[in-house]
Amino acid sequence: MEHLPVEVIGNILSRLKAARDVVIASATSAPVIAWLMYTRDTLRQLHYNVRTTPIVNIIEKCSRQKLEVLALAYNSVTGVEPSYEKFPCLKSLSLSYVSISAWDLSLLLTACPKLQNLALINPDIAMSDAQATMELNSPSLKDIYVEAVSLDKFILEADSIENLHLKDCTLELFELIGKGSLRVLKIDDVSVLHLDIGDNTENLQIVDVSSFTIMWPKFYNMISKSSNLKRLRLWGVVFDDEDGVVDLETVSSCFPQLSHLSLSYDLKDVCGLQGSSHLENVVVLELGWTIISELFSDWVAGFLERCPNLKKLVIFGVVSEAKSHEECRILASFTSSIVRLMRKYLHVEVQFDYE
């Protein structure tokens, strides 16, 4: 096909329904360029994950068009020119396994004045010798998902951000500069020394943290003002200080609207049942263990007493394949304890999820 005139190739490929059909047709750049020439004026979505010879500069080929969704994978982005409206209609941008410099990424976001969703998945981000911090700025951005990113310092300025999700990242510093619009904070298996999401956290409704280590005072200060919090999940979290004590008294007073609470037994030493306050609005309670203990059923019972309006209880557990006699005994004892316990709470639906 690469030996045909570009006009003929474009006419043929413009009749295909999706860009993936172009990829099947040929791995050379000529068909891709031809297809873009004939479709870019009306193209709204482009998912581009093919390596061509030579490389096609998708950023340049699709700029100043009506593109609303752009997903790039396994490509390189270089030489982004400063332009405020290079992508005037783009609302969603996904970069997966893409090589790009921190400077080019910053320029690219500036060129998308209507961008709302950004996903960075395992990008190869090049930093210059004089640049120790990656700074991104997007006034329109509402949702950002960052996975497998390793940087010293990452500063995100996003006045309209509502959803922040960090996963499998290694960062020395992450700072969010916003205006208090954040509603959802998810942190999953992240290593970060300094985490700052700003002081205006009144609008936070969901905090979901797993496989994470942080100083309790810092974490508490981050979310303690979130009086509108409705869902709190702390799973596999380690508070790296001796004074890290999370008690239900604190949870009850700080988060009066909390309706969904999820805690793992790893927190048993830092999530006590001190005080007498109840979690009046909690209707879904998720509790789990990584290594089962004799005391787990007592821990569950304590939470049930403090959640008078509970409707659903979910127990998560990890059961090893090579179970010892002692593990089997503890699991059987726990099962019997839960059966007896739930006779007092017949109105509560109970589910078990073991892996």
From TrEMBL:
Q: Where are the transmembrane segments?
A: none
Q: Which residues form the F-box/LRR-repeat protein 15/At3g58940/PEG3-like LRR domain?
A: 65-259
Pfam families from the UniProt entry: LRR_At5g56370
Domain of life, per UniProt, equals Eukaryota
Gene3D superfamilies recorded: Ribonuclease Inhibitor (3.80.10.10)
UniProt-listed InterPro entries = F-box_dom-containing, LRR_dom_sf, LRR_FXL15/At3g58940/PEG3-like
The identity of this protein, by name, is F-box/LRR-repeat protein
Q: Which organism is it from?
A: Pyrus ussuriensis x Pyrus communis
Q: What is the lineage of its organism?
A: Eukaryota, Viridiplantae, Streptophyta, Embryophyta, Tracheophyta
